[in-house]
Amino acid sequence: MNVRRSAAVLAAVAVLGAAAPAAADSSPSPTPQALPSALYGDTDPQYDGVWRQSLALLAQHAAGAEPPKAAVGWLTGQQCADGSFAPFRADPSAACDAKTMVDTNQTAAAVQALAALGGHDAVTEKAVGWLKSVQNKDGGWGYTAGGASDTNSTSVVIGALAAAGEKPGEVKNSGKSPYDALLGLELPCTGEGAGAFAFQPEKDGSLAANADATAAGVLGALGKGLLVEPGKGDGEAAGSCVKATTPEQAAANGAAHLSGELTAEGHLLAVTPGGEEQPDFGNTADAVIAFAARGDAAQADKSYAWLEKNAADWAAQSGPAAYAQLILAAHATGADPRDFGGTDLVKQLQAAGPAAPGKTTKATEKAEDEKDESSPFGVWWFVGVCLVAGIGIGFLISNRTKRQQP
């Protein structure tokens, strides 16, 4: 969940770099003043609108709060005729075409949220049908249809299949299931990163441990989605790495690796440039959910306790998806998200949603701060520079850092 190096981000940078002179003539997304009132958050939704909306709805459901009907309606209205979802469609009445950048992550997140809320079978069935239609021959999924399979995308689709009542192990292409894909993306029990999941193979075919992918891989290998019920695991801490021949063993190996990567305080460290010694709040929240899914309550509780003391400011700066991550972590451990170190996470999340006081004003002020009216490139030039420089990339797509091979 914690924004991985996405193909969509890299593609945006490439387009901006190649076509900058034409940027003044068109705008690929609405200005912040034009954001739909039913959308959570006030930042540009071009890359993560459906994702953050889905997490916001799922988190409220987990906390026993009924999401606004307008917010649910906005999400269902984003679906394309073939069942897929793009991050953001400014005009849902316009038919999706080849230029509409749909992806598996947004689609799978929407399925998980709408399946949890109930009453949206037609939408989720169509979305699941599309996901099945773009399954790779190795059994997994890439971020975009036809892209190389990665652990994170495969895992979030597994969660969607399970949420929709499917049996992920029976969803196959060329005889391969998504579990086969995950087993192929886990590092062996010897050498550096033993038992971890890689995001994708490197260009030379080797696998590099990735904590974010490992947290996602544990959930996927267990056949679970983003909403994990507390007390449903086996109650045992992960042991030493053993060659995985089953998804369950792969999950145990991944959890053992994550445990070894935690600091003494119980959190993971960021691996983004310049942030190697900084806490990684999002990945730590993901790890909490992964530990809880296996039933490793002791480790999940320890890491959650660290988040409770330290992550409120991070969530306030990061927006609705971050609040949702923390609420889902609280739910997985049986904690109260309305008393998160003195912060009511549910209230804060709802304040970023429909009819939130000052939402439009805040967005307008943000736009004025970021946009130089004298520049022919406007805010998209600014976003492109930020992406190239690695500034703020962690919050553009589903609050994760992703690398997607072309």
Question: Can you describe what's shown?
Answer:
Keywords: Membrane, Signal, Transmembrane, Transmembrane helix. Residues 21-40, 350-371 are annotated as: Disordered. It comes from Streptomyces labedae. InterPro entries: Terpenoid_cyclase/PrenylTrfase (IPR008930). The chain has 406 residues and is mostly helical. The chain has one domain (3-401): Glycosyltransferase (Alpha/alpha barrel), CATH 1.50.10.20. The protein has helices at residues 7-18, 49-62, 69-76, 104-117, 121-133, 151-163, 178-184, 211-221, 247-261, 281-294, 297-310, 312-318, 320-333, 345-351, 359-370, 378-389, and strands spanning 3-4, 268-269, 279-280, 400-401. A two-stranded parallel ribbon has the order 1-4. A two-stranded antiparallel sheet has the order 2-3. The longest helix is centred in the middle third of the chain and has 15 residues, at 247-261. The radius of gyration is 20 Å and the shape is globular.
Question: In short, what is this structure?
Answer:
The chain has helices at residues 7-18, 49-62, 69-76, 104-117, 121-133, 151-163, 178-184, 211-221, 247-261, 281-294, 297-310, 312-318, 320-333, 345-351, 359-370, 378-389, and strands at residues 3-4, 268-269, 279-280, 400-401.
Write the layout of secondary structure elements.
Elements: E1 3-4, H1 7-18, H2 49-62, H3 69-76, H4 104-117, H5 121-133, H6 151-163, H7 178-184, H8 211-221, H9 247-261, E2 268-269, E3 279-280, H10 281-294, H11 297-310, H12 312-318, H13 320-333, H14 345-351, H15 359-370, H16 378-389, E4 400-401
Parallel strand pairs: 1-4
Antiparallel strand pairs: 2-3
Helix pairs in contact: 1-16, 2-4, 2-13, 4-5, 4-6, 6-8, 8-9, 8-10, 9-10, 10-11, 10-13, 11-13, 12-13, 13-14
